[in-house]
Design a protein that fits this description.
Shape: globular
Order of helices and strands: HHHHEHEE
Structural class: mainly alpha
Strand content: 5-15%
Distance between the termini: 31 Å
């Protein structure tokens, strides 16, 4: 599971892959292990959050930092506290400042676009959504969330896990369903 977890942790960013991998080696050595496991990746990813936060501050203008962080906290709370999942869906046709800022958070590597076209079962037929993942650093490491549903979107058998109405993000409120 360590390789899958490392790929998930880096969000497709080569620099993050190398940094998290390097820290995972240190974590495994600290516990005197011969191999890196998924828990080592979790710890390294959680520790990498401080680096991501520094990059966030460096890469944003001071006047936009507060509003970007507010949207990020809204998404984070939605994922971790309301729907208990690492992923969320955003209506592909949605417009507005929060949507623009979610796209900026992808550029800042705090959110990751995982699928550009998702349909939802049941009541939302005909609407197209984009699927996003909250960065692993937000729920791994020393503050790993117990019972958090990790949607393994890269596995074909888990595609239905992304198609649930409850994952639709709309002003931070989950939808019934």
């Amino acid at each position: 599971g360590a390789v899958d977890r490392l790929v998930l942790a880096c969000g497709g960013v080569a620099r993050d892959f190398l940094s998290i991998f390097r820290r995972s080696v240190d974590v495994a050595r600290e516990r005197q292990a011969d191999k890196i496991n998924a828990e080592d990746i979790n710890v390294a990813s959680g520790e990498y959050d401080s680096s991501k936060r520094e990059e966030f501050k460096r890469d944003t203008y001071s006047d936009e930092e507060g509003s970007l962080d507010a949207v990020f906290q809204k998404v984070r709370q939605f994922c971790l506290e309301k729907v208990n999942s690492n992923c969320f869906l955003l209506n592909k046709d949605a417009k507005g400042n929060d949507i623009t800022q979610i796209h900026e958070l992808v550029d800042l590597k705090l959110l990751h676009l995982i699928r550009s076209r998702v349909t939802v079962k049941t009541t939302r037929q005909g609407k197209i959504y984009e699927a996003y993942m909250l960065d692993l650093s937000q729920y791994a490491g020393s503050r790993k969330r117990r019972g958090l549903e990790i949607v393994e979107f890269w596995k074909p058998e888990s595609s239905d896990s992304l198609r649930r109405v409850k994952l639709i993000f709309d002003d931070g409120e989950p939808h019934a369903g």
